[in-house]
Amino acid sequence: MGMMGREITLSLLRTGLIKPWSALADLIYPPACAGCGVSTGAHRSLCPACWSGIRFIERPYCEVLGSPFSHDLGTGILSAEAIADPPVFDRLRSAAIHDGVVRDLVLGLKYRDRTDLAPMMAGWMLRASDGTIAGCDAIIPVPLHRARLFSRKYNQAAELARHLARLSGKQLLAATLLRTKRTSQQVGLGARARQDNVRGAFSVAEGRAGDVFGRRFVLIDDVYTTGATVVAATRVLKKAGATDVTVLTFARAVDDLI
């Protein structure tokens, strides 16, 4: 039997072994909507009602901040915010607006141990990355402080980054950027308070400067609100020699369309 024949045989054997276990798992844990829990035909999926409630962020949007426009203003258009106060990162992209089902998915991943949601969410993020993942050198998650990581058991940004790296084949640098300052929860803080809270919170790990210098990165987080966290993290990466930083989040807070 040739090499191709052996590979086909192994593939069939794996399929034959996996299918009974998958069927048993479906009996014990039937596929359900990740948003509302009603029965669905597949795991890691949404029912039609939840799917229709998601507001995906697609063009037209600001080329720098990714802020969605209410109507098409032409190619390369920037928002007034991006012109008046250019961010330290090079661009921002997000998969969906942070409300309804999208907010529930974020909360499930972040606080309810729903790490099973990360592959689906990462798939949406890859689609929303606008080619920036394809053009980057590596993917970096926004890190948690070790004390918070110990209490939470995992970093939701790192879970998303891990699956994005798997889907794209890009290098994952999960230990290059560190959160060295234990910050307060950002929820409930105003924009200025958020900036003060994360000032000096990040650093490049000792001996890891070579990971950063002269390279292009996609920085991963779950939600973009005021941007204080990703701005602080980007400043550290740029200071260490990063040539380009794209911020990619699953969701972003949007008040009104421009």
Architecture blueprint of SSEs:
Elements: H1 3-28, H2 48-52, H3 80-84, E1 91-97, H4 100-111, H5 118-128, H6 132-135, E2 138-141, H7 146-152, H8 156-168, E3 171-172, E4 177-179, H9 191-198, E5 202-204, H10 209-212, E6 216-224, H11 228-239, E7 244-252
Parallel strand pairs: 1-7, 2-3, 2-6, 6-7
Antiparallel strand pairs: 4-5
Query: What share of residues is helical?
Result: 40-55%
Let me know the largest β-sheet: 5 strands, parallel
| Order of H and E elements | HHHEHHHEHHEEHEHEHE
Structural class: alpha/beta
Uncertain residue segments:
21-25
Looking across the biggest beta sheet, what order are the strands in?
A: 1-7-6-2-3
Radius of gyration: 20 Å
- Per the principal axes of the C-alpha atoms, what is the gross shape? globular
What percent strand? 5-15%
Tally of helical segments: 11
Round the mean pLDDT to the nearest integer and report it. Answer: 87
Beginning-to-end CA distance, first to last residue: 63 Å
Number of strands: 7
Characterization of the model:
It is a single chain. By secondary structure, this protein is an alpha/beta fold. Helix content is 41%, strand content 14%. It contains eleven helices and seven strands. It has helices spanning 3-28, 48-52, 80-84, 100-111, 118-128, 132-135, 146-152, 156-168, 191-198, 209-212, 228-239, and strands at 91-97, 138-141, 171-172, 177-179, 202-204, 216-224, 244-252. The strands form two sheets. The chain has a five-stranded parallel beta sheet. Helix 5 (118-128) packs across helix 8 (156-168). It is globular. The N and C termini lie far apart (63 Å). Residues 21-25 have low confidence and may be disordered.
